């Protein structure tokens, strides 16, 4: 199925992160220093998983720019730029371009399309594009047009809950203990009945551990948000090496482990 990534771009939050989208009024404010510490630990976890990590400078005045996953998909043949639905995020595209591989063509989602890569789950050569408040059918069609010549398929999927498709559904590859078995996905309960899950081994996280569905699987290592012991224990039991990473400050802005890195 999808190859394990070997490198990652990450971007620590800028001071403006305290104004990031998705914060609930009356909820505890983002602690910026704690967010920086958590981001450093996230980088350490990626490195412990074997990735080569490039840490970009913070993007001044772009509150959500630490969520680099959303802005681009890097394929060996092509870079595909997103078009974020939220106007405050659109300048993130220009702010990442200089750091993307210069050796391949670049395509971009254009108006009336909107698409954030947090809505796209890759399993093998299929991109499942979640239709959400951030990603529309026109965005999905443009992705289809760009990747079909590369031999990839696109299927659209409703996003039953949460901000993005990957908020509630992530692909882990095959279990380290059952290399010939089906691919494994981790799903928030609201996602369990999606038809695209037929034929996969679906681990449904307990309702009380919903955010734990946003794991980052890197080969036999999986980063799990702290602290969701039932999910972590289930993954250990199935043979993954689990790294538990605290991301409370990013979760306050609707962010999870997948959102914080652009993998390639
Ligand atoms: C936003 O609302 O756009 C950010 N505060 C969070 C983006 C999270 N990204 C992701 O799930 N891929």
Average pLDDT over all residues: 97
| Overall structural domain count | 1
The CATH topology comes to L-arginine/glycine Amidinotransferase, Chain A
CATH architecture: 5-stranded Propeller
Largest sheet: 3 strands, mixed
The structural class is alpha/beta
- Total DSSP E strands: 15
Instruction: Please work out how many helical segments DSSP would assign.
Output: 6
CATH superfamily: L-arginine/glycine Amidinotransferase, Chain A
Shape: globular
- Terminus-to-terminus distance: 15 Å
- C-alpha Rg, in Å? 17 Å
CATH class: Alpha Beta
Summarize the structure.
By secondary structure, the chain is an alpha/beta fold. It is 20% helix and 24% strand.
Question: What would you note in describing this structure?
Answer:
The chain is of the alpha/beta class and 264 residues long. It has a single domain, classed as L-arginine/glycine Amidinotransferase, Chain A. 20% of the residues lie in helices and 24% in strands. The chain is built from six helices and 15 strands. The protein has helices spanning 32-48, 91-97, 137-147, 165-168, 229-237, 248-251, and strands at 7-10, 52-55, 72-74, 79-81, 106-108, 120-123, 126-131, 153-158, 169-174, 183-187, 201-204, 216-218, 221-225, 241-245, 262-263. The strands form five sheets. The chain has a three-stranded mixed sheet with strand order 2-1-15, covered by helices on one side. A three-stranded mixed sheet has the order 3-4-5, covered by helices on one side. The chain starts with 6 loop residues before the first strand and ends with a strand. 45% of the residues are buried. Bound molecules: citrulline (CIR). Citrulline binds at residues 20-22, 64, 67, 69-70, 86, 89, 118, 163-164, 166-167, 253-256, 258-259.
């Amino acid at each position: 199925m999808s190859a394990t990534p070997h490198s990652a771009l990450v971007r620590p939050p800028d001071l403006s992160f305290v104004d990031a989208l998705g914060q609930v009024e009356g909820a505890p404010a983002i602690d910026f220093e704690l967010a920086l510490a958590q981001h450093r630990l996230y980088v350490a976890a990626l490195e412990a998983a074997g990735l080569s990590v490039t840490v970009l400078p913070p993007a001044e005045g772009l509150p959500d720019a630490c969520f680099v996953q959303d802005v681009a998909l890097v394929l060996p043949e092509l870079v595909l730029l997103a078009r974020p639905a939220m106007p405050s995020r659109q300048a993130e595209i220009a702010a990442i371009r200089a750091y993307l591989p210069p050796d391949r063509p670049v395509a971009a989602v254009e108006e009336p399309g909107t698409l954030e890569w947090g809505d796209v789950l890759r399993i093998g050569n299929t991109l499942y594009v979640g239709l959400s408040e951030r990603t529309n059918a026109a965005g999905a069609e443009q992705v289809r047009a760009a990747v079909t010549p590369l031999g990839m398929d696109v299927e659209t999927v409703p996003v039953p809950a949460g901000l993005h498709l990957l908020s509630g559904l992530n692909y882990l590859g095959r279990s380290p203990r059952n290399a010939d078995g089906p691919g494994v996905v981790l799903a928030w309960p609201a996602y369990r009945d999606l038809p695209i899950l037929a034929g996969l081994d679906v681990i449904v996280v307990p309702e009380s551990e919903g955010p734990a569905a946003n794991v980052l699987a890197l080969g036999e290592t999986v980063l799990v948000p702290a602290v969701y012991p039932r999910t972590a224990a289930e993954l250990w039991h199935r043979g993954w090496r689990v790294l538990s990473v605290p991301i409370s400050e990013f979760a306050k802005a609707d962010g999870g482990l997948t959102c914080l890195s652009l993998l390639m």
